[in-house]
């Protein structure tokens, strides 16, 4: 495991402490497969929330936009 992977896992453990381990592992695996996609998603959510959109709405809309790319990451 790379240093970046280790740091990502530690950060996820801290931020998602209430999320079951299996779901946390699935999310981390998706991020590790395509970190650039998640950077793009994060930046777009941040841009929309800074524009005044509620975070939940912004997140849902951006996730819908990238639904196809995300679904390919979930498949083994």
The gist of it:
This protein has helices at 3-15, 21-33, 35-50, 55-65, 67-74. The chain is an all-alpha fold and 76 residues long.
Question: How is the topology of this model organized?
Answer:
Blueprint: H1 3-15, H2 21-33, H3 35-50, H4 55-65, H5 67-74
Helix pairs in contact: 2-3, 3-4
Q: How does this model look, in words?
A:
The protein is 80% helix and 0% strand. It is mostly helical and 76 residues long. It has 2 domains: 1-33, no CATH class; 35-76. α3 crosses α4. The longest helix has 16 residues, at 35-50. The two termini are 19 Å apart.
Kindly state the mean pLDDT as a whole number?
86
Helix-and-strand structural type: mainly alpha
**Radius of gyration using CA atoms only:** 13 Å
Low-confidence stretches: none
Shape: globular
Overall tally of structural domains: 2
Helix and strand succession? HHHHH
Number of helical runs?
5
Distance between the termini: 19 Å
Helix content: over 70%
Number of strands: 0
Biggest sheet layout: none
The fraction of residues assigned to DSSP E strands is under 5%
Q: What are its keywords?
A:
single chain; 76 residues; mainly alpha; 5 helices
């Amino acid at each position: 495991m790379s240093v970046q992977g280790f740091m990502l896992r530690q950060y996820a453990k801290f931020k998602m402490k209430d999320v079951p381990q299996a779901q946390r592992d699935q999310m981390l695996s998706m991020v590790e497969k395509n970190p650039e996609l998640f950077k793009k998603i994060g930046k777009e959510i941040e841009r929309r929330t800074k524009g005044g959109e509620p975070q939940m709405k912004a997140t849902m809309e951006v996730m819908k936009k990238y639904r196809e790319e995300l679904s390919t990451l979930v498949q083994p």
